Amino acid sequence: MKQGVFPGPEPHRNFSGMNIIRWPKADRWVAGSIEDADQLETLIGKQVMVVPELAACQYGEWSGCSLKAVPTEDLSLWLRDPEFVPPGGESRSMVTDRITHWLRNFGIENETVILIVDADIVRILVLICLGLDVTLADRLDILPSSWSILSYVRSWRLQALSLPPDKVFF
What we know:
By secondary structure, the chain is of the alpha/beta class. Helix content is about 25%, strand content about 15%. The strands form two sheets. The protein has a three-stranded parallel β-sheet. A two-stranded antiparallel ribbon has the order 4-5. A hairpin with a 1-residue loop joins β4 and β5.
C-alpha cells in the first residue's frame, strides 16, 4: 500500500538478501504461500508448512491496480467497511474470519512457531490476538521484512511489532 498499488497475484517477496539474518530456532515454520515456503526452505534448510488461511488478501480485479485507478467511492468503502468486497476479491472480514478460524484450531501450546506472512496478515493477527476490531488495521504500520512477536500464555500478548531484522536477537 505504501506504493499506492494493490498487490498483484505474482510473488512479490524476495528472501535472497535475508541470508545474513540470524534466524531463530523454531518448532514449526509456516508460510501463507507456496512461493514463500519454497524460498524459505532453500534459505533456512527447514521444512516450511503452507497454510492457505494465512495467504494475503485477494484483491480480485484490483490486484496490481493503482489506488488512483479504483473508483473513489469503492476505495472509500474498502477503507471504511470491512464487509466490502472488491470485484472478484475478498473483504477484510473474510480474511479476518479465515485467520481467526486457523488461529483457534492451530495447536501452538509450548511451541515456537514462525509465521512468514504478508503485512496485512500480521496486522490482522495482532488485532485478533489483542481483541481489537479489524477496522483498526490501517492504524498499524508493518515494515517490510520485519519481525513481530506474539506470545501465548493463558492469553495473547504483543511483545514486539515491526522490528527491523537487524534489531531482533533471539
